[in-house]
Every structure is written in C-alpha cells, then in structure tokens.
Amino acid sequence: MIPIIDAHHHIWDLAANRHPWLQEEPPIPFRYGDYRALRRDYLPADYRRDAARQKVFATVYMEAEHDPADPLRETRWVHDIAAREGLPDAMAGAAFLDRADAAAVIRAQAAMPLVRSLRHKPKGVARPQDYDPAHRIPGSMRCPAWRAGYRHLADSGLHFELQAPWWHLPDALDLARDFPGTLIVLNHLGLPADRSPAGLAAWREAMARLSEAPNVRVKLSGCCVPGQPWAPALQAPVVLEAVRLFGAERCMVASNFPVDGLLASFDEVMGGMRAIIADLPEADQRRILYGTAAETYRIRTGDRLSP
User: Fold this and answer.
1) What 8-state DSSP symbol labels residue 213?
2) All residues at 6 or more sequence positions from 199 whose CB lies less than 8 Å from its CB, including other chains
3) Each residue's pLDDT tens digit, 58-110
4) What pLDDT, in 10s, does the model give residues 108-161?
5) For 153, which DSSP code?
6) Region of residue 24 (phi > 0: left; psi between -120 and 50: alpha; otherwise: beta)
7) What is the CA radius of gyration of the chain?
8) Where is each Amidohydrolase-related domain found (predicted)?
9) Backbone region of residue 278 per phi and psi (left: phi > 0; alpha: psi in -120 to 50; beta: other values)
10) pTM for this structure?
11) SS3 27
C-alpha cells in the first residue's frame, strides 16, 4: 500500500476555541446539508482512529473557520497540538484579505513554523447562471480590496488555498496570471456538485482553462454528492479528468475529514481514491498520494516511506 499525505483535514476542540459555524444557532447553509453531527470535538486521536487503515504518514491542517476576530489564535493552538500529538506536519492558516490588518496577519502567519498557506474563502454567486465576470462583489476575487490583500502573499512565501465553485474559476485564472509568484491550491476540485452531463461539461471547461496557469495545483477532495454514496464510479470522472488536465505532478489527495465523514468513511474516501487511480503508472500514483503534497507543503518524508 502506497503511503499517503492527507493534504487537507481539520481538528477542533469546541471547549477551547470558538468556531461560530460549529457552535452558534441556527446552523449556516451548508453544501452537504445538515451538519449537526460535526458539532463535537474532533482531535488527533479521533483522526487517527478514522485513518488507521490507510497508511497516512503526514497531514496538513486546514483552517476551520475559527473566530475571525483572532485568526492567529487558531494557528497557535494547532502548533501546541502538533507539539504534543505529532500531528499535523504542516498547516494552512486564516487571513482576511479585504481587512485592514491583512498585511500584518499574513506576516504573522508566515512567521509560524508550520504555516505553509492561507485561506480566505472569496465571496461569489450561488449559481453559475448568476456569474458575471464584470461584477466586483465585495470580498470576491475581483474585489480591489481583496486583491490588495492578496498581493502581500507573494512577499510572504505562502501559498493561497482557494475554495470556490467552478463558475468562479475564471476569476482564479486571472488571479493566477496577475500574481504568478503565488501558488494557488484549488480545494475540492472546484466543487463539482452537479454531475449531470451539462454540469460536468461546464466544470470541465472551467478546469481546463484554469489548468493553463502553471501556478495552480488541485486537491482531489471534498467531492461528496449529497444523497449518493461515495463510490469510485461516481467520483472517477471528476478525479481522473482533473489528473488528465493538471497532471499527477499538480494533484494531491485529501480527506477533508471530519467534514466528508458526514457522507462517507475515511476508508471509503481514501480507499476509493486508491481504486480510482490504480491504473495510472505507479510514479503518478505516488505523486498523487504523497509526492505533490510533500513538495507543496514542504514535508520531509525521510525514512517514513519505508515499508
């Protein structure tokens, strides 16, 4: 079994930290529907129990929408957890690019040993038919204030974690071209929730255009479809198309746990990913399962790849 670096997972302690979406009422609208099952602590022991059968040897923590008033508190907490528990090996922190403190927060995050990237989910429209590239929605990738904050990433050496639906990928392509010194890591395959022939064709076209930017990588993750079981037959069309477009050297697997645990087990997600890419050359499988993530998040593999 080829080892895995899980390039995107969360942990949280709801007694120690404030996560409004996990603690406040009413719950926010969520792409997977009812997420109340997530409103419990999820700590390294829980993650290790879920991942026990998949030979995960390193992980990357993704910011979990901690209290926006103090994004650095989440980062310090993750560093404390890593020092005690040996997990995660790297992390993506939070910054709010359209706020006045964006530059200061980016500098502070970059000074933390485990931080490799930052995420700020840009605003957008909820449906592809409402997308207009001429819009300058406040907080979007085309918002002047948001882009002013984004500009500071190049000096920090940090990557940007992009979570946006596929119809906003033209904005991401412009961002990648305007700021070629900043690596963009697209989360969750651009959220291809619509698996109809028309939906997949539109997603594929947007991904194909984005793949033209060399400073973009893709996480093969977060692709659960509400109401349908996680199965290789369901996910293979989007996973293999992303690999075809971007190449194995720009793709990496990730569990998105515990969030994807709402609809699938860790073994179903990661075992399914192994099954989907099983016919690719072994060198490509290794890139997807750990090599791209190790390079992207500067994780030293050392002797941890030994049988």
Assistant:
1) S
2) 192, 193
3) 999 999 999 999 999 999 999 999 999 999 999 999 999 999 999 999 999 99
4) 999 999 999 999 999 999 999 999 999 999 999 999 999 999 999 999 999 999
5) H
6) beta
7) 18
8) 5-299
9) alpha
10) 0.96
11) coil
